[in-house]
Amino acid sequence: MTQVPDWLERLAAQARQATVPRYLRPPAGRGREAAVLMLFGEGPNGPDVLLIQRSAHGRRHAGQPAFPGGGVDPGDGGPEAAALREAQEETGVDPAGVEVLCRMPELYLTHSDNRVTPVVAWWREPSAVHAASPDEVESVERVPIAELVDPRNRFTLRHPSGFAGPAFRVRGMLVWGFTAMVLDSVLRAGGLDVPWDTAQVEELPPDSLNLASR
Questions:
Q1: What is the mean pLDDT of residues 179-183?
Q2: Is the pLDDT of residue 14 over 70?
Q3: HSE-up of 30 (CA within 13 Å, CB side)?
Q4: Structural domains of the chain ordered from first start
Q5: Where is composition skewed (Gly residues) in this entry (predicted)?
């Protein structure tokens, strides 16, 4: 059992007060409630965060790296419980070893019509994880923060629509879109970010675009 580290306490304090960009603010009366779990732990290669690679056969966000998560069910009682339940279903993580620290402001995803609440948590007692729901999840990775903030793994990714945002290339995954934006914001909030070349721009690969367009 390990205590919440100072860097994560600082990150959580900033994350709960994060400012939501106008284009991510939920519209009144629209969207399905959803939650994702941003689970930080202390792994063999230092501090890390749990990410999944969604199945290419999924209905929404197919093939994309993401935080574990999904819809908030009536019996969940809120985003925190929903995020933990979904993480257990998708990765096999034991919720008993997870300490929820805060919820971030709700964000709206137009493509899936979801109002998503990111839940920040500390992996107090890590458990084995795997792709527990193969129909939805292709793989599970504990990604070291050191790899995420490494300038060699960071760049700006441009969608054919013209929108450009932060992206990461780690552990064989191209992390972009919603997940990359949230990661970028919380790493900066926690003082973990290091300077990187934001002028290095790449186009969204056709295979990623085709999956995202479903």
A1: 95
A2: yes
A3: 12
A4: 6-145 (3.90.79.10)
A5: 68-78
